[in-house]
Amino acid sequence: MAITDTSISTDLQAAAAVGRVRWTVRGQVQGVGFRPFVYRLAGRLHLSGFVKNSTKGVVIEAQGPSADLEVFERELRERRPTMAVIDELRRKELDVKTPAEAKGRFEILPSDADGQTLATITVDTATCDECVKELLQPRRMQRRGDHPMITCTTCGPRFSILRTVPYDRSNTTMAGFEMCRDCAQEYLDPADRRFDAQTISCPSCGPKVMLTGSNGSPIPGDAIDGAVRLLMAGKIVAIKGIGGFHLAVRANDDGAVERLRRLKKRDHKPLALMCGSLESAQQLARFGAKGIAALTSPARPIVLGIKTSNASLLPRVAPGVARLGMMLAYTPVHHLLFARGGDSLGPLVMTSGNCGDEPIATDNLEAIHRLGGLCDAFLLHDRPIERSVEDSVLLDQAESDPLPLRRSRGYAPAPIALPWADSTPGLCVGADLKSAVAVVRDGTAILSQHLGDLTHPLAYEHFRKAIDDLRNLFGVEPRWIAADLHPQYLSTQYARQLAKSLRVPLVAVQHHLAHAAALMAEHGRRDPILAIVCDGVGYGLDGQTWGGELLAAGLGKLRRVGHLRPMLLPGGDAAARDTRRCGLGLLHMAYGDDFADLPATRRLVSDEAERAMLCAMIVNRVNCVESSAAGRMFDGVAALLGVCEHNHYEAQSGMELEAVCEGTATPRNMASMFEIRGRGTLELDFSPLVRDLIEGTERGRDAGESSAIFHEQLALGWDRMAATASRRTGLRMVGLSGGVFGNQRLGDALTKHLKHQRLRVLRHRTVPSNDGGIALGQAAIAAARAALEGGRTLHHDGLLAGGVKTLDLGEC
Questions:
Q1: For an engineered disulfide with 491, which of 165, 223, 429, 434 has Cβ 3.0 to 4.6 Å away?
Q2: Is 632 helix (H, G, I), strand (E, B) or coil?
Q3: How far is 686 from 717, CA to CA, in rounded Å?
């Protein structure tokens, strides 16, 4: 936290009997009970003055004894509300007012909406323990008992209901709900915990819940009880939450789960579960201490834990993988469902309210139109959702902090400080898969919520709206736009059009450099590192498909110091789905052009005509893509071991390959099954490993043992190549990024080996290692260049050695 003191000298300040100070507080200080906290603190110290929200954050003026003002400032920092985050506290000494001018009281003034928007927007948070306690009391004992929209100053929706800043009720979707007399009294009472709570409501004046049929027709009776009865009967209920809809069924009803999968067109991908308590969740999955802390945090993300034996009772929830995605109830509606349903209700499948890769539904009428054919009933409420915000997803890791896989509800749009602070505003459009965009202002990057995969038309429209939303919400007029180097990405094409329209430069950033820069940014690193970046695909500096890279990376410069030996993928993108094609590419790499006659090849592709065609494509290099992607290597090994021959969803083969060796010890004292070649750029060749996997299978070695060997050899190979590159470059810090590092077994094994080499290791903990973190990397690079150029407009300089290209309007 920075403190800027433009006050008079310390000696004069200490000598003054009475002082008057203005503080401007930046950070997450709106919508978290900060103003009521300030009001009560000032009252306890008998200070006069005011506090108010503004577009700059929170502004405080206080007058009183100088010693009390020092206590006031100290307690602002040290005793702030739980959800408050102070990024900056600016202090300015003012002339002391006369008693008549000071009025002798402290006030909460109306918000100031003038000026540039600098305030940090508060994230959506789970219902707090105090509200849950009130909620579960009978209505006759507590007037908010059973109120399914209960909130207070420290919990409930924030980002998902905010229309504009500052954070006041009139600027949220609560504006249409007029407070009743009782709520208004609590709102104005400094002693009440709902003092100045913008989302305050009760059964008399607040939003209401209702139960309808799949066509929107009302179902009479209590809505919560009716929803519980439907769920108990095996029906699918669409439930409106904070940032959109879920589709819910009982997880232990195989028929209901199977029907949901069929209707949602999600035959194989794991489904998330919701439990009413931590104890229930721990019966199904194991979590470390940090995983439990994440599960129970106000963010309430989905956390992926290792399945317990009890999870075998839910065979259709997450088939073929070793982990379950678990979350705890986080809205009042969720708590009421579990309280009314009791143990019989059991865990609920709680999956996104969409079909396929569409964005989740948010509006009631939209949901009935889009989801009416996927469910039997709707549990609705009438508080509008301003923007969709999906559940966040974290991977629980025993050896390190939980890894974000999707950063959304509970975390977005919290700002991330950039290593090079520059005030030049910008926009970053990220990548096409797992899309998230970002705006840059005042030395921070503000990432959007998860937006989905842009290949779906609705997701692409959602992406465009999110860009406009972030720009308007945070008052950013970009002076540059950053995008991926890949010319065919939809995000890049949109960025090109927008840059031309706004007449600003387009900064094109190589995909794997952006991965490395995102990791550097979240750790506050300016100095170059070695980065091992492993993913499925990225457009390389040479126009080829990269994805298994060792980079000497800085913020804006990279050198490709090593990579996986490329393999040929017949049909290009088709190999990402048909993993047998990746297996053929590995066999060709390991055995040469004669691979077509191998028993392994015949086992992999049993149809003779299809096998002949695919092998001929590889041998003759017809309609093939040459790729160094680690993700495709996982695909190929999964196919060769008979674990997964088709990816029905992204990274399925990698998840199942990791799952099949769960509980299998890492083999010891193995000989190296790889070769490192090259005097300049290093090449890591795993042909010996492929041959061992094939020979092991033919000897009867099971897939679990072979998968354990594969993971260990891949970690060893990267470790040896990183050690060689470290000696050449002098760099001792190694970062791990890219979607493949969602594989905990690989990440942990590689980290262990690198540390044994006395190399320091960076891993993700704030943004996803997958493409959900790309926008942050783009932001870090573009902001660093703007800062190093002294804030001048980025100039056209062609393709840099760093894989960053700034295009002028002519090139656009």
A1: 429
A2: helix
A3: 8
